[in-house]
Specification:
FAD/NAD(P)-binding domain; 19 strands; 6 helices; five-stranded parallel beta sheet; seven-stranded mixed beta sheet; binds NADP nicotinamide-adenine-dinucleotide phosphate; alpha/beta; 2 domains
Amino acid sequence: MTEKLAIIGSGPAGLTAALYAGRAMLSPLVFVGPAFGGQIATTTEVENFPGFPAGLQGPELTAAMREQAERFGARMVEAVVESVDFSKRPFTLTADGQTYTAESVIIATGATPRPLGVPGEQEFIGRGVSYCATCDGFFFRDQEIIVVGGGDSAFQEALFLTKFGKRVRIIHRRDSFRAGATLQRYARENPRIELVTNTVIEAIHGSSKVDSVTLKDTVTGATRRTDVGGVFVFIGHDPNSELFQGQLAMDDHGYVTVDGRLTTSVPGVFAAGEIHDRIFKQAITSAGFGCQAALGVERFLADAG
Ligand code: NAP
């Protein structure tokens, strides 16, 4: 059976697209991907999603979005899409060895945390190096923690990590931060957080797990070694677009190119969220893009007849 719409990804963009497409009677098939909920499901307190004045946990938000989409007929497949063929319609997708066909596709595969690329980082992933505070913070109770980055992610996750670490140092390569004013204020008011500017990590050291890092002053060039149990890296994200290389137009950074209606270079294939959005990257903007893509699909299918 050919599906009317396949959605790849289950973050705010994919789930909002699923809700709108469900309400348009398209009975969308949603490929959940490697981790249900996407990035927002790995964060703790979400304070800026409208409609929740007291805030809520990331996983609570995505669970509610899923329930709402399913109420209108969206179907979730707990599988990772391994290949796609967008060369002709209906489009073909394979996931967990099964083949699916669909009249239209919304790509909402989001983005993945960017690695630092310093010696020791890859070696110690899961043994002191992490990209997810909610997943791994618990392992660093009463330890020294370093968070790398100067954006919202670094600040938000550093605040969360103060529940565990005896001290959380935010290491940033410049002397001013990108993070929003509120998060910066929370961090400056938190006695467990220390802000270390003009500094980068040059190498991560340890034996069975991380025990120290070499820090380098970006102004003087001086280096020093400091003891640390956990290194959390939040220096931005790269779009998860490898699967679509050679089939969809992309920019130099791998962001899928879309027009004003979120159509990709292939009519009938739409993109929503951090796979194409290199500017806003908020849960609410991704949800908005998911809505737009679903409306685009509805119109595309109506025009296609
Ligand atoms: P981001 O805003 O791109 O910030 C990345 C940070 O990492 C920057 O401070 C950057 O330094 C630094 N950096 C980049 N490459 C580096 C390297 N190789 N070595 C050392 N430092 C490096 O990324 P993000 O914090 O993940 O946020 C992404 C988007 O999600 C943003 O739009 C943000 O607003 C949003 N977000 C929002 C919330 C919230 O609203 N609560 C929470 C999380 C994320 P420079 O400043 O020098 O470039």
